[in-house]
DNA sequence: CTAATTTCTTAGGCCAGACTAAGTTCTTTT
DNA sequence: AAAAGAACTTAGTCTGGCCTAAGAAATTAG
């Protein structure tokens, strides 16, 4: 059973989309930028390999074996992101793209050495937890910024990567892991949020806000 | 015109085998561990792409365009080898294998950043010159250890990578770039050489000696 | 509850890059 | 210079991973 790069990419994507549930083939197609029939084909193959369970017309769910591989790839990805930033001085918004290519190629040895160089870190530059070597994803209690009550404060925990443009924009507003944010006002319907981040106040669209995850404010630690 | 990893590997291999001349398809097949027909097929395609000149039943030679790509890959490879050793503490004999995978994947940005971190180095851990960004391979005047006169001394310049076992063995005898070696005696026919490396004396087979390149002794710099 | 729409799958093909088996052409030997 | 051997190529296949076009199931609408 040979695990190709394509397979790794499917498993990783399914894992990230799936966090606790079935994943639709169309969602996978969208994320991987391939056609839906390609996904169906690959998904059948992965089911044969016992890396996931597949029910026609319904969806897909990783088996423990599939999840294990996915977590290895995610670990590689997040360690690489952090390493690129910390050791090579990559800007925040460029680490994702490079890690995307390297994650499929590095050896166990490489993984260990950068993990060591980084002091066995637990989160990547965007605040995402790094799975451990034995395939456990440290749980973090976060909720969407949208869920914060008007007037309440919270600490930014994660900012979703993927789109460098959005990431740059969020960064320009001050949304980094660790930053404190206060929700001043939520416009009704799908209107924007008024928030305070550090000194500044901004209006933030809902779509954008959905990419910011926070935990209860812990001002002391900032 | 899409340059795949396979194409990069062919061009690199042809370049390294070719240093000034035609390369036989069988040599490529041997090095890349593919069948001769596979090489013929690929070589035809590369000729179409104007990356090399190909004469049936004869051999192959890179065009400037092909050589440019080859040199980029070689630059990646050698920078990576050095980075793995210097920055991540890889042992001498393991850098090659990892670099072999990474060389096809890293971006220009990555290349620049590790080059900078290393202080724009000129040779890799095995003593091979690193091509510059604009595709020039710094010339180094070296000859085979076998060519050294009996009684003469020389400075080790390069040790060919590729086979980790051989590399480890050579290292155990003291053959690093920079080491001084004296040829004490050459057995006739294909017999071994007696050499002194540092304090120790060793008998070295011709095959092994062929992998050690030296320049005129410059004791001062050691 | 049927019809329209969306979502997913099947069918059939393409391309890259590898392979084996069966020729060619070049080289060496005698 | 003919024959034997080595080196290289052609022919025909296979596999992985993708695609489009067309059909089946599930969902939503009326």
Note down, in words, how this protein is organized.
The structure is a homodimer. Chain A is of the alpha+beta class and about 220 residues long. Among the domains of chain A are: about 60 residues, Winged helix-like DNA-binding domain superfamily/Winged helix DNA-binding domain (Arc Repressor Mutant, subunit A, Orthogonal Bundle), CATH 1.10.10; about 80 residues, Roll (SH3 type barrels), CATH 2.30.30. In chain A, about 40% of the residues lie in helices and about 20% in strands. Chain A has 8 helices and 8 strands, in the order αααββαααββαβββαβ. In chain A, the strands form 2 sheets. In chain A, strands 3-8-4-5-6-7 form a 6-stranded antiparallel beta sheet. A two-stranded antiparallel sheet of chain A has the order 1-2. In chain A, a hairpin with a 3-residue loop joins strand 1 and strand 2. In chain A, helix 1 crosses helix 4, helix 2 packs across helix 3 and helix 4 crosses helix 6. The longest helix of chain A has 23 residues. Chain A is globular. The mean pLDDT of chain A is about 90. At the A-B interface, helix 5 and helix 6 of A face helix 5 and helix 6 of B. Chain B binds a DNA duplex (30 and 30 nucleotides) through helix 3.
């Amino acid at each position: 059973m040979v695990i190709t790069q394509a397979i790794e990419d499917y498993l990783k994507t399914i894992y990230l989309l799936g966090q606790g549930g079935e994943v639709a083939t169309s969602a996978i197609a969208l994320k991987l930028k391939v056609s839906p029939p390609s996904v169906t084909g690959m998904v059948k193959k992965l089911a044969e390999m016992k890396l996931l369970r597949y029910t026609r017309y319904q969806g897909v769910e990783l088996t423990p074996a599939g999840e294990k591989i996915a977590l290895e790839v995610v670990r590689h990805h997040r360690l690489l992101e952090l390493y690129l930033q910390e050791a090579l001085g990559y800007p925040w918004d460029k680490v994702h793209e490079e890690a995307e290519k390297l994650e499929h190629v590095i050896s166990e040895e490489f993984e260990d050495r950068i993990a060591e160089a980084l002091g066995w870190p637990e989160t990547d530059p965007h605040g995402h937890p790094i799975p451990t070597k034995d395939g456990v994803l440290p749980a973090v209690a976060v909720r969407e910024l949208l869920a914060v009550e008007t007037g309440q404060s919270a600490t930014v925990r994660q900012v979703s990567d993927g789109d460098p443009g959005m990431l740059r924009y969020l960064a320009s507003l001050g949304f980094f892991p660790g930053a404190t944010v206060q929700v001043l006002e939520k416009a009704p319907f799908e209107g924007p949020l008024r928030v305070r981040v550090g000194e500044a106040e901004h209006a933030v669209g809902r779509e954008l806000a959905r990419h910011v995850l926070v935990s209860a404010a812990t001002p002391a630690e900032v």
